[in-house]
Amino acid sequence: MVPAQTPRRPVPQLRPTDHFAELLLGVLSGRRPVHSMLRHTVGRAYDDLAHLAERGPLRTRGACPVVRDIGYFEPRPGALEVFARIGAGGRLRALAFRLEQGRDLRWRCTAVEVGGPRRPRSDDD
Predict the structure, then answer these.
(1) Regarding beta strands 66-76 and 79-88, do their DSSP bridges make them parallel or antiparallel, or are they unpaired?
(2) Beta-carbon neighbour count of residue 5 at 10 Å?
(3) At the N or C end, where does the chain have fewer CB atoms within 10 A?
C-alpha cells in the first residue's frame, strides 16, 4: 500500500515591505550587524542606518521588538514608502523607510527613519 501524500502548499513569499521591515528591525534592535545591510541599501540610507543603529532606538530590555503593523504607499511604479509600527511590551515605535526597485529587479532601501526628527544634513551630503 502506498502512503497517501498531502498536497504541498506553496511557501508564501514575503513582500519586500515585510522583508525589509524585519531586516531593519534586526539592525535597529541590535540583533543584526549594520554591515549586513550593505547590499540592501543605496545612497545615504546605509549611513543613516549606521547612525541610527549607534543610538539603538529599538533596543529593549525584556520583550523582543516585533513588527506589529505595516503599510505602504506606492508614489510611482518601483518605489514604495513604507511605515511600520514596532512593538516591544506595551511600547510602540514608528519605523519609516523607502524602497526602490533597481534595474536588476532587486529592492533596496534608500531612506530610513525611526519615530523622530531626521538627522541634519551636512554640506558633504
Answers:
(1) antiparallel
(2) 6
(3) N
d(C-alpha 78, C-alpha 44), whole Å: 19
Q: What is the pTM assigned to this prediction?
A: 0.80
Classified as helix, coil or strand, 63 is coil
Intra-chain end-to-end CA distance of the chain, in Å = 70
CA-based nearest residue to 97, from 67, 123, 125, 121: 67
Retrieve residue 87's grid coordinates: 512593538
User: pLDDT tens digit string along 72-109?
Assistant: 999 999 999 999 999 987 788 899 999 999 999 999 99
Residue 96 contacts residue 66 (beta carbons within 8 Å): no
